[in-house]
Write a structure and sequence with these properties.
- By secondary structure, this protein is of the alpha/beta class.
- It contains 8 helices and 13 strands.
- Strands 2-13-12-11-10-4-9-8-5-7-6 form an 11-stranded mixed beta sheet, with helices on both faces. Strands 1-3 form a two-stranded antiparallel sheet.
- It is globular, with a radius of gyration of 19 Å.
- The chain starts with 5 loop residues before the first strand and ends in an 8-residue tail after the last strand.
- Bound molecules: adenosine-5'-triphosphate (ATP) and magnesium ion.
- Magnesium ion binds next to helix 1.
Length: 272
């Protein structure tokens, strides 16, 4: 049998719970309520994969690139070790990201889609686009996928984070959620990317999904939560699903210290 190539979760003690890591090419839903460190956890994976020589892209739909970078600096990630390029120019997106150099190493492309979207609206209102323009569509999801495709073609992306699926839904009205979400994930799969898709848990979103189908369409689900016990709140993580992998589905305490994530006490009641 061919061994599955995997990437690390970069959470100490956690890869053993999923056969050594996340299979390359998987689409993984990272699901949790506000402030459960979804963005930080995904950034940590991307950052460490880039340090190992892979290329990565982080598509932020609502949080500005500046706010995201500030959070990462406050978590003491040494961002000077990676070659960060912020994409926030809609003109460049329309022109097919022609300014981006192919195949740069240690590259982290941060796509500030909130800013790009605002500019696209103005450009569209002023009808400044031409027939030859690339990746310009009323459909923002299509535009995001085109950006991902171009990054992959320019050999700038092995691992991608989309932050978040919930924000992406707010950009578009899904008439046929099952087939449109299927198309979105298949598009990323066809690009050969390992993708982390963040999803916000709320009362509106039923367990693991908004439309009740995302959890079936993705290959893996990591669930982050804050649990209250005796007036103390603990961060927790569990693997709800990971295809082609024998998993330990126990709930682990998730700690972040010394710019490292650690998984502790899987399946055990932590000492209080
Ligand atoms: N050392 C630290 N520095 C900064 N924030 C920290 C640190 N340790 C834990 N945090 C917590 O990380 C959380 C923010 O992380 P992050 O933005 O990754 O969460 P999120 O789940 O993506 O949030 P949101 O739901 O707003 O998108 C904050 O609640 C903050 O308290
Ligand atoms: Mg976030």
């Amino acid at each position: 049998m061919v061994a599955t190539e995997r990437i690390g979760s970069y959470i100490e003690n956690f890869d053993a719970a999923m056969g050594g890591g996340i299979p390359v090419g998987h689409i993984v839903l990272v699901y949790g309520t506000a402030g459960t460190m979804k963005s930080s956890l995904c950034f940590n994976i991307l950052f460490n994969e880039i340090l190992k020589g892979k290329r990565g892209a982080y598509i932020s739909i609502e949080q500005s690139s500046l706010s995201l970078l500030k959070q990462m600096v406050s978590l003491k990630f040494d961002i000077s070790k990676v070659n960060i390029e912020v994409l926030n120019d809609a003109d460049d997106v329309i022109k097919g990201l022609s300014k981006l150099k192919s195949g740069e190493t240690h590259k982290l492309t941060l796509v500030d889609f909130g800013t790009i979207r605002k500019q696209l609206r103005t450009i569209k209102a002023q009808k400044k686009t031409s027939k030859n323009d690339f990746a310009f569509s009323d459909d923002m999801v299509h535009t995001i996928l085109k950006i991902a495709e171009t990054l992959a073609e320019k050999d700038l992306c092995d691992v991608i984070v989309i932050d978040s699926l919930t924000a992406l839904y707010s950009l578009t009205e899904l008439k046929d959620p099952r087939s449109e979400i299927f198309y979105l994930f298949e598009y990323l799969r066809d690009l050969g990317l390992t993708a982390f898709v963040i999803s916000e848990e709320s009362e509106l979103n039923s367990r693991f999904s908004r439309f009740g189908i995302e959890s079936y369409l993705v290959d893996g689900i990591l669930h982050l939560q804050l649990t209250e016990r005796n007036r103390k709140v603990t961060r927790e993580i569990s693997i709800a699903k990971m295809r082609s992998t024998s998993c330990n589905n126990d709930i682990f305490t998730l700690e972040f210290s010394g710019s490292k994530f650690k998984a502790l006490y899987g399946g055990k009641i932590p000492l209080v």
